[in-house]
Amino acid sequence: MKAVIPLAGKGTRLRPHTHLTPKPLLRVAGKPLLDFILDDLLAAGINEMIFIVGYRQDAVRAHVAERYPHVTGRYVVQEVQDGTAGAVGLAEPWADDELLILFADTLFKVDLGIARTLDRARAGVIWAKEVEDYQRFGVIVTDGAGDMTRIVEKPREPVSRLANIGLYYIRDHELLFEGIRHTLAAGPGPSGEFYLTDAFQYMVDAGARIATAPVEMWLDAGNVDALLEANRRLVSGTRGGVARGALVRESVVSPCSRIEDGARVTGSRIGDNVTVEAGARVTGSELRDTIVGADATVEDSRLRKSIVGRSAVVRGFEGALGIVDHSKVDARSPNGRERIDP
Q1: Most buried among 84, 136, 139, 290, by the most CB within 10 A?
Q2: What is the spatial distance between Cα 62 and Cα 55, in angstroms, rounded to a whole number?
Q3: pLDDT tens digits, one per residue of 111-141
Q4: CATH architecture of the domain with residue range 2-227
């Protein structure tokens, strides 16, 4: 089995943070988004991966080479951002086996082993999560056996509450790429893009049976609010706590936070949903719903719903803030905000 991972997007909904860092390498609860996916794949015994790259692809390639040297990776460049069908379609020359298709702005907890035990009558699996706010998602309509009949984007009526989370197993890869070619030939959708779900519809219309499977956890990380909410869920669980190598003095730290090795917190109040990464320093400040990048400095500030980039400096600021790596915000200086070049 091989994995196809589209990573080419510019991550415009996560700007300014994606101006310097590609979306898959943004960190939540102290870990790049891409690493959550790669760790799950390796744990499932999958080490052959086809990466569809584009925006800031050199950073992605370097990260995988350094952190995952044992991964057998093929990189395919998506020159034109024409949607999910176009992205996955580029993998066809190397997709000669069963496939898992995953997107790097979604964190999940599922049983990938279902793909190993799926009965031979089915051509694939779509993992789906039951939601109340079904109008926000593409939802999967199923038959009595739980197989997909169609996917409806952002329905006004409650035709289904099974949200498509963007995680797929495809056994019949030949029919999948036939469906992608058909989708690309039919012209783009209303947004000007080609959707992978249209290729799945082609498969079903051709007689394929695609099962749905349950999702234990699903965290979107496609925009700043979603990234912070994902951080909340993770640091409130297994990725929370104060590391032994962290220094915390004269401070109050919520148990629903994460303070990493080498971080220093002095005279501060660390509220819920905060990650202070390795080497960062927080002094005389109050933080909640905030991610402080590695080696960053926060002094005399009151931050909420904020993301402070690696090696950035924040002094005397109050409110919500989003700054990229190697930046400086000093509310006490005449300039107020200035950029430090990397």
Answers
A1: 290
A2: 14
A3: 888 888 888 889 999 999 888 877 777 889 9
A4: Alpha-Beta Complex (3.90)
